[in-house]
Automatic annotation (TrEMBL):
Name of the protein this chain belongs to: Beta-carotene oxygenase 1, like
Residues where Fe cation binds: H172, H236, H307, H490
PANTHER family linked: BETA,BETA-CAROTENE 15,15'-MONOOXYGENASE, BETA-CAROTENE DIOXYGENASE
InterPro entries for this protein: Carotenoid_Oase
The keyword Metal-binding appears for this protein: yes
Native source species: Fundulus heteroclitus
The keyword Metal-binding is annotated on this UniProt entry: yes
Cofactor binding annotation: Binds 1 Fe(2+) ion per subunit.
Keywords, alphabetical: Iron, Metal-binding
Length: 499
């Protein structure tokens, strides 16, 4: 696996037909979009961290039992600048870039000046999100890039700051049944005290004729002040019930002073994130309708969370499920000098790695009764559910199993009622985050299929799109792709409604 982990991906700009074994359900009509890092070197320059690679977007389109595949690099400003220079010229999370010494003094001085206040990359490599009826490649910065889900062409860049005062925003929003999108961001620089902001983009804001961005009608729901002005909490996702947003203000923090001076100190932005094991984790419960936070804050021991599974209200309680870690070592594992080690050396070097565990936290909305039961299930990440059950009481979630590597070699279905799970695996195969698609008219929560893009370190095994029966977790089909496919992070299924 280490031999292919940071290999540059290849574009397949025109759709290619997959070879299907088994039977793709005739009702499965639509496109699975996937996003992740795909280009790890430009010219003679290389990135330091797996999360720095330039975004490569994939699509798997299902139509009448057939599957077609295509992929294109996101044509961000970062991508275009790097390719034009034939070297990496834009800094990323784990790779700080300095001006070419061959450039003239004025050019170098301007580069240094621009880095007094960092203008982050627009290499949106984490997820595909929807605002209105527009789709965007996203990461966690103030820029997002609109993409055409049919052609994968990059439509244009949007800056959150032109519509709402944000410096950072998550790539994991929530959607309600009316098509509205809810998201969270961080306002570090601007008027007033630094704060976290929860906002809503109405589902009816798209304007394809005049090409006005969906964000033009963004609505701020509320804000939550930092508990420490110079050390905002890092957050990758958040929870949402019918009436509440649950925000975990964790002691995994961004050091603002270090961030502002990172360029001049010769360190990357990733080094500005620090975990304070002696600090508490705060849980904020915010009423979506009123925008008011509950008058009480809930505390727990120090933990790190990247992905929320689900949240819902039950008998006067807010219940939310998360994947938790005891520390922040996960990011360090993804430095490429780590990931390229031979398997035995990798395992030896990362013995202190904190595995993800699936706890639950139950918070009474009126009284401080935060409870935690951890260790129920270990080694699970990239969770997904039947999204029709988002913000509702649910029973199943699906995710990637992590063992010796941060890259999963299994996917699993977890029953949180019986505390049991079933797995799919194949030797030398590495499946992506599982995505659930419900059957038409489904009533049962697990009536549908699981989609996962699978790559292999075995050259005799072509990459394939795996389809599992979500109820039995048995393979019903695989669509082998006749071109290289790269590992990815997150994605979104867009159903073909026939409109």
């Amino acid at each position: 696996m280490q031999a292919i982990i940071a290999r540059n991906g290849l574009e397949t700009p025109e759709p290619v037909k997959a070879e299907v074994k088994g039977s793709v359900p005739s009702w499965l009509q639509g496109t699975l979009l996937r996003n992740g890092p795909g280009l790890f070197s430009v010219g003679d320059s290389e990135y330091n961290h797996w999360f720095d690679g330039l975004s490569l977007i994939h699509s798997f389109t299902f139509s009448n039992g057939e599957v077609t595949y295509r992929s294109k690099y996101l044509k961000s400003e970062t991508y275009k600048r790097n390719v034009k220079a034939d070297r990496i010229v834009v800094s990323e999370f784990g790779t700080m870039i300095y001006p070419d010494p061959c450039k003239n003094i004025f050019s170098r001085a301007m580069t240094h000046f621009r880095n007094i206040i960092p203008d982050f990359t627009d290499n949106n490599l984490i997820n595909i999100i929807r605002y209105g009826q527009d789709y965007y490649a996203s990461s966690e910065v103030n820029y997002i890039n609109q993409v055409d889900p049919s052609t994968l062409e990059t439509v244009g860049r949007v800056n959150y700051r032109n519509h709402i005062a944000l410096n950072l925003a998550t790539a994991h929003p929530h959607y309600d049944k009316e098509g509205n999108t809810y998201n969270m961001g961080t306002a570090i620089i601007g008027l007033g005290r630094p704060k976290y902001i929860i906002f809503k983009v109405p589902g009816t804001t798209s304007d394809k004729d005049l090409k006005k961005p969906a964000l033009r009608k963004v609505q701020q729901i509320c804000s939550v002040p930092f508990r420490s002005t110079l050390y905002p909490s890092y957050f990758h996702s958040f929870g949402m019930t019918e009436n509440y947003v649950v925000f975990v203000e964790q002691p995994f923090k961004l050091d603002i002073v270090k961030l502002a001076t990172a360029y001049f100190r010769g360190v990357n932005w990733g080094s500005c994130l620090k975990f304070d094991e002696k600090d508490d984790t705060f849980f904020h419960v915010i009423n979506i309708k009123t925008g008011k936070a509950n008058s009480l804050r809930y505390h727990a021991d120090a933990l790190v969370v990247f992905h929320h599974i689900n949240a819902y209200e039950d008998d006067g309680h807010v219940v939310f499920d998360i994947i938790a870690y005891k520390d922040s070592n996960l990011y360090n594992m993804f430095y490429l000098h780590n990931m390229k080690k031979e398997t035995d050396n990798f395992i030896e070097a990362n013995q202190e790695f904190s595995p993800p565990v699936f706890p639950f936290h139950s918070i009474d909305i009126t009284w401080v009764t935060a409870q935690s039961t951890s260790g129920t299930f270990s080694g699970m990440e990239l969770p997904g559910i039947n999204y029709d059950f988002n913000a509702r009481k649910y029973r199943y979630f699906y995710g990637s199993r992590l063992e010796w590597s941060p890259h999963p070699n299994k996917i699993a279905k977890v029953d949180i009622v019986t505390k049991t799970h079933v797995e799919w695996r194949q030797e030398n195969c590495y499946p992506s985050e599982p995505v659930f698609v419900a059957s038409p008219g489904a009533v049962e929560e697990d009536d549908g299929v699981i989609l996962s893009s699978v790559v292999s370190s075995d050259p005799s095994i072509s990459p394939f799109l795996l389809l599992l029966d979500a109820k039995t977790f048995e393979e019903i089909a695989r669509a082998s792709i006749p071109v290289p496919v790269h590992m990815d992070l997150h994605g979104l299924f867009i159903p073909d409604t026939g409109k």
